[in-house]
Design brief:
The protein is mainly α. The longest helix has 23 residues. It is flat and about 40 Å long.
């Protein structure tokens, strides 16, 4: 099976699984976009800097 075809269903399952875990573990009043968005940007910038070096 080509990697692109296999990555679609795997990504969907990963997204659904992480959503279920987040809904059951994290409190409802935690604003996820404001707490996790900057961290994601930090990880992306760090990965790009490592790749450029």
């Amino acid at each position: 099976m080509p990697p692109l075809i296999a990555s679609g269903p795997f990504g969907a399952l990963l997204l659904i699984g992480s959503d279920l875990v987040a809904r059951s573990v994290l409190p409802d009043d935690l604003p996820s976009a404001s707490s996790r968005g900057p961290f994601l940007v930090h990880l992306l910038v760090r990965a790009n800097l490592r790749r450029a070096a």
